[in-house]
Amino acid sequence: MRSMEKEKDFIAQKSMAKSIGMNTLSKLKESLFSVLPVAVIVLIFAVTPITDFTTKEIVTFVVSAIMLILGIALFNVGADLAMTPMGEQVGAGLTKSKKLPLLLGVGFAMGVLITVAEPDLSVLAEQVKAVMNSTVLIVTVGVGVGLFLVIAISKIVFRKDLSALLIFFYMVLFALTAIMFENDKGVFLPMAFDSGGVTTGPITVPFIMALGVGVALNTGGRNAKENSFGLIALCSIGPMIAVMALSLASSGDMSYTLPDYSVEANLGANFAPALGAVALEVLIALGLIVVFFLILQFTVLKLPKQKLLQIGIGIVYTYVG
């Protein structure tokens, strides 16, 4: 009996390894076709008299482009293996528990944690840290996504009309825009609207979409799958409103100094500290998600070992990517 179970586990693991390998190759092709055209255009300009790229800068760009292709591929594989299944299982498991406060509370927490782990948000926060505290901005955007994910889940559970919600919250958004201009805060608007883009990142989208599908399929109804539509649209509004509110409460200005993006500032002796800082940030962000998911696993979800193994491999891929 045990030997049969071991054989089944071996076959399942072999099948999963083959599937991961094929998925990795597919994602490598996708990232290659995404990065290569831009890289070729830059290299064409780099070797013409129009620009004054040094050999060191060209070599650095080529190596960085290759690393970017590999990183995007691994990151996307990790999202497929971990973030999408996590979102769907959390949505389905908590909906089956019939405890709406628990579903909404976990939805808020996961919305915040997933957003904090989003690389797009880290890039935005780093670029505007001279204007606004990066930690405060990240937390504000995360809370905005979390709150509107709660609204989106409530929309699915109570089967409310998406268009009415979008119209209402966009009216609120434009009202805040007018208030910001009245208070001479209009210069913060580009940052506020850009913050909405973090909900279209490679971590946030798979998780939120899968969470919505998991909730919708377990609430029933004739249009269960259609009820999961619009989650990204709703969640994109949250960060914009949150950052606008933060800007209105802020006494800062837009005195901005462009960060040093030179090769010398990020290579040589500066490379290891920069890499270590990024690795630590990603580890903390993903670690919070993993810890929260494990708490749900032991209390509510109780997924089989095979599914946990897949999610674990996906987390590793995401971190390395």
Protein described:
By secondary structure, the protein is mainly alpha-helical. The protein is built from twelve helices and no strands. The protein has helices at residues 2-46, 55-96, 100-116, 119-127, 134-158, 162-182, 189-195, 204-219, 231-249, 263-266, 271-301, 305-320. The model has no long low-confidence stretch (mean pLDDT 85).
Instruction: Indicate the structural class.
Output: mainly alpha
Q: Characterize the biggest β-sheet.
A: none
Q: How many individual helices?
A: 12
- SSE string: HHHHHHHHHHHH
Overall strand count: 0
Beginning-to-end CA distance, first to last residue:
40 Å
Q: Helical proportion?
A: over 70%
Point out poorly predicted stretches.
Answer: none
Quick structural overview:
This protein has 321 residues and is an all-alpha fold. Helices cover 79% and strands 0% of the residues.
